[in-house]
């Protein structure tokens, strides 16, 4: 059924877009296609499988941190228009007092996109890094007034991760596991799970993971340890990166979200439909949904055929998902395009071509 997409994925491996990947396509919550390609590790020649676990990188933002924030809002422990200053002491100085939870989720807080905090954090003992990060974020100058301009920001989601921990009293990985993933049975065995890898407890079997980069500063092949530099310095658990999972686990969570939007109650009381709809509704001013990306014009990674009500996200390691609630379509593309080097950017042109081929077939 997916001959063209199948050929494209094989070509992606042959032309070095990525060493390996998994493509999963579903419609109306039923998998139409799921297949693995290439190598999970070019050095050990470990083949990619449908059960391979990927460093999901920035898919952490919508699939962990955003859902954690949503859960706390549902419990009335947080509010979208609540100021960050009311939660994090010291954040209300100068122009930061206007920044709200909504601004962080829309990426229009005025914060920069990225800072190399890890260079300073790695000089500190592990137990001092979280407080040091909070101090850095509090002092970070804004580039724009809150709400004036959208700039995709890792820093905003680092702050959201700290907020979840501050308000819930639990570490981000534990809160998401206990309150979201466990009720959905996304914690039953690694290949069916979404989880963070605590680097202090690292001891997982490496062959289940897709390798990422041979890191220039860590001097190791990253495999089962988070690729993102700042998340690594924080022990593997952060609001902007750190989530791991298989294509099947990502599909299970996205199917659940889709069912909520369509009014199908699968797990009672886990998320409110109206709140989920509010989060996934595109704001034209911000150009995004709350915590999720939406198709951009004219050159979206989703291609040409996803509807305007679609949501998705990209991950730096070569991961992505796009979900179209109008057509009940989900496309998940997980690759290890940064293996062995992050300098490989061929996936940028590959993603829309693949999504167009899949959507043409489905539609």
Characterise this structure.
By secondary structure, the chain is α+β, with helices and mostly antiparallel strands. The protein has two domains: 3-61 and 175-362, Beta-lactamase, CATH 3.40.710.10; 64-170, no CATH class. The chain has helices spanning 3-14, 60-74, 101-106, 118-121, 129-139, 154-168, 172-181, 229-233, 247-261, 273-279, 347-362; strands spanning 20-27, 30-41, 46-47, 54-55, 194-196, 243-245, 311-315, 319-324, 329-335. The strands form two sheets. Strands 3-2-1-9-8-7 form a six-stranded antiparallel beta sheet, sandwiched between helices. It has a three-stranded antiparallel beta sheet with strand order 4-6-5.
């Amino acid at each position: 059924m997916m001959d063209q997409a199948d050929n494209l994925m094989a070509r992606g491996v042959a032309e070095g877009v990525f060493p390996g990947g998994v493509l999963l396509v579903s419609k109306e919550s039923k998998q139409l296609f799921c297949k693995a390609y290439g190598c999970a590790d070019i050095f050990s020649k470990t083949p990619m499988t449908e059960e391979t676990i990927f460093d999901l990188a920035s898919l952490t933002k919508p699939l962990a941190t955003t859902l954690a924030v949503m859960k706390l809002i549902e419990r009335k422990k947080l509010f979208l228009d609540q100021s960050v200053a009311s939660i994090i002491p010291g954040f209300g100085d100068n122009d930061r007092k206007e920044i709200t939870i909504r601004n962080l989720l829309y990426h229009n807080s005025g914060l920069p996109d990225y800072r190399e905090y890890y260079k300073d954090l790695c000089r500190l003992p592990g137990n001092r890094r979280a407080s040091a990060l909070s101090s850095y974020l509090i002092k970070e100058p804004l580039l724009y007034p809150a709400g004036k301009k959208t700039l995709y920001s890792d820093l905003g989601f680092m702050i959201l991760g700290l907020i979840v921990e501050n308000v819930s009293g639990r570490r981000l990985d534990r809160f998401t596991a206990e309150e979201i993933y466990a009720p959905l049975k996304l914690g039953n065995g690694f290949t069916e799970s979404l989880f963070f890898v605590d680097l202090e407890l690292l001891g997982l079997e490496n062959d289940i993971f897709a390798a990422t980069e041979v890191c220039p500063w860590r001097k190791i092949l990253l495999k089962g340890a988070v690729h993102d530099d700042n998340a690594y310095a924080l022990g593997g658990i952060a609001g902007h990166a750190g989530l791991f999972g298989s294509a099947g686990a990502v599909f299970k969570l996205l199917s659940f979200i889709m069912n909520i939007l369509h009014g199908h109650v699968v797990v009672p009381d886990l998320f409110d439909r109206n709140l989920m709809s509010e989060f996934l509704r595109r704001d034209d001013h911000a150009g995004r949904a709350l915590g999720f990306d939406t198709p951009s014009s004219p050159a979206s990674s989703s291609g040409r055929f996803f509807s305007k009500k679609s949501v998705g996200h990209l991950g730096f390691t070569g991961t992505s998902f796009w979900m179209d609630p109008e057509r009940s379509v989900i496309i998940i593309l997980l690759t290890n395009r940064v293996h062995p080097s992050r300098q490989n950017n061929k996936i940028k042109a590959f993603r829309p071509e693949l999504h167009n081929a899949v959507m043409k077939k489905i539609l």
